[in-house]
Amino acid sequence: MADRLYLGDYTYSSWSMRGWLLLARFDLPFAVTRISFDDGAVSDQLPDIAPGRTVPCLVTDDGAVIWDSLAIAEELASRHPDAGHWPADPVARAMARSMAAEMHSSFGGLRDQCPMNLQTAYTDFPASDATLADVARIDRLWTLARDRFGADGPWLFGAYGAVDAFFAPVAARIAGYDLPVSADARAYVDAHLNDFGFRRWRAMGVARRDHLARYDGPWSQRAWPGPARLAEQAIDSGRPENAACPYSGAPVTHLLETGGRVFGFCNAFCRDKTVADPEAWPAFKALL
């Protein structure tokens, strides 16, 4: 039995995004159970996995229950030491863990004023002094990590690590609310926006079409600042090139069209997450 991750909404749940990236971005096998924020208290929806009471919550194949994202990162690193959650160099590892812990416990101004919303971006957002102070601190941390340890790749410590999964929702906030950062920090934000793990997570939110009005802001909106979507569209009829869904292997029932070609999927969600960002899904790209 694979590990099972309980998570919330793809568009709004920054904590769930962290938990999912800690597994998906490191190629670890797991299954997903979604918890709706509109179906009552999260703790009431998790009666069978006590003492878990929030999302993300990971139940491992041996029955361990881990209900905190930082604990999930550390436990996965212990169970999968070759996955690469933390830098191998002890000095870099100490800094990465400290940065993840600070992100986990701090930046209340940014969290309160800028809830994550992966479907909406704003113009002329009036950032508070507390938010700007948080962003300045984040910018400083990112710059230090990149200057000291980031020479071998676009991430904070070169290769993608757990600390990058923790800062992915922060990057989404900076991008969505167009918060002021240095050029180097902006490049790091762009690395997240273009990362296929980030893009798959966001595409699943688009496919679910969930909308929680309480997260809407009153400011002018603009297009999401990530990569432009290709011209795919869902269609009702046609002759698909593939007989089996590229994700599940099940017979196709739902169709999309791109460039005059038709492809099939086993359900609406598989189709719609592909329509949302087709280049983010290796199994679909293989069909093309």
Report the top-level CATH class of the largest domain.
Mainly Alpha
Summing up helix and strand content along with how strands pair, one would put the structural category as: alpha+beta
- The multimeric state of the shown protein is single chain
CATH architecture of the largest domain: Up-down Bundle
Work out the radius of gyration. Answer: 19 Å
The biggest beta sheet, please? 4 strands, mixed
- Total strand segments: 9
Task: Kindly report the CATH topology of the largest domain.
Answer: Glutathione S-transferase Yfyf (Class Pi), Chain A, domain 2
State the distance separating the first and last CA atoms. 32 Å
Average pLDDT: 95
Instruction: Give the low-pLDDT segments.
Output: none
Write the layout of secondary structure elements.
Blueprint lengths: L2 E5 L6 H11 L5 E5 L22 E3 L5 E2 L2 H11 L10 H16 L2 H6 L7 E2 L6 H21 L12 H15 L6 H12 L1 H13 L12 E2 L10 E3 L18 E5 L2 E5 L2 H9 L5 H6 L1
Parallel strand pairs: 1-2
Antiparallel strand pairs: 1-3, 3-4, 5-6, 7-8, 8-9
